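pasting for ref
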Amino acid sequence: MSGTYATVEEVTAYLTARGLNAAWDAAGGTKQNAALVEATSFLDAAFSWVGSIADSSQTLAWPRLCAYDREGRVLDGIPQQVKDACSELANLALGGRLMPMDLASNSATVKRDKIGDVEVEYDTTNQQSCYDYVRMILRGIGGLRTNSGMNRLLRV
């Protein structure tokens, strides 16, 4: 499928090799394609990449010119690291929209904790650990876009 960083077949092979393919296989083609589009859009929105786009008319950030990995190797086309990160996120996106990465913390999201009349709950099922893994996969070729010091305020 064009407009994505990986194909359904590439994601299937990636997830199968890791034993993570059950939900992916059960989802079927339409959901898989939608998850790939979501994952690709998420990567381009969340990451700043090394190098510069190869063609000003391209819709995605990859392929790029003057792009090297952290070992100094030229990155041609869509790098395997980007395909792997896309695979991880596509599998996660089967459950719906991907949530913005927490740029400030690796801890659990506050969901509920009660102190007197005030109650806050901690969400331990957030997507942070998958995002941390995606960051590790992309280390050296892409970094998270910063939010210029602005933080999200959530009303509970």
